[in-house]
Amino acid sequence: MALPTMVSTAQLHTLLEQDDLVLLDSRFYLNDLEKGRKVYQQGHIPGALFVDLHHQLAGTETAFTGRHPLPEPDALAQTLASLGINNNSQVVVYDDMGGAMAARAWWMLVQQGIEVYVLNGGFGAWQKQGLPIEMGVNQPAPTEFRIKVSYPWLVTEEDVVANFEADRFQLLDARAEDRFNGMNETMDPVAGHIPGAINRPFMNNLNAEGLMKSPERLQTEWGALLQHIEKPIVYYCGSGVTACHNVLAMNYAGLEAKHVYVGSWSQWAKRMQRMMQEHSI
């Protein structure tokens, strides 16, 4: 069954008056955790609610997790209820990075059976079309209904370790090519990539205007990359965020993709650092 993926600015504009629409602004900046909320208050698509990727769509980072572990199922269920999301909601998520941040929310919600889409081109495309923008903070209409949250598409660190012997899946890294190759690593304590992984930077899913490439173009590009791989693909990145953009792009192209190693390189680098420290003793 095909997953919902993208809507255009024109499509969203026609949806704004729907009672079951929940519009989420998921703008997020790793170097300034408060900026997303600030830019939301300065201007957003009418009716949008701000959702905080770092605090609402992620759990607490520890010495043994990646930067953005998934929240506990009960915590996400509470967040969804506080935003007014139930099984009948139609959710649209946007950001200002070509869907790189919005895709995390999409991936988390779509596996709950929620009808959720990413706005193609995000806030920038909406502004470019000269469509309405409002300021301030919208208040959600919470629901008492609780979605039973689970993460069937989650791949864990233990799964990745076991795969070195089991060889059940192929890892695919969404980070930029230089970081994949161990260069210009400024975020994690160890540079490089997980052994055996291949690379497809998520930015390659976008055209020059910051829109998702056409399904046909994506199908051709992804098909060329994966043509000799017969195993299922598990997607990862730096912290389990932009990997979701590759999953989104694959589904937009009509190709099957679901599983994400959420700990990603930020968790794996901590593992490598611990191993190096143990061997140096």
UniProtKB/TrEMBL annotation:
Alphabetized UniProt keyword annotations: Pyruvate, Repeat, Transferase
Domain of life where this protein originates: Bacteria
Start and end residues of each Rhodanese domain: 17-135, 165-277
Species the sequence originates in: Marinomonas communis
Pfam families xref list: Rhodanese
Keyword Transferase in record: yes
UniProt protein name: Thiosulfate/3-mercaptopyruvate sulfurtransferase
SMART domains to which the protein is assigned, alphabetical: RHOD
CDD domains in alphabetical order: TST_Repeat_1, TST_Repeat_2
PROSITE patterns in UniProt: RHODANESE_1, RHODANESE_3
Molecular function terms, GO-annotated: thiosulfate-cyanide sulfurtransferase activity
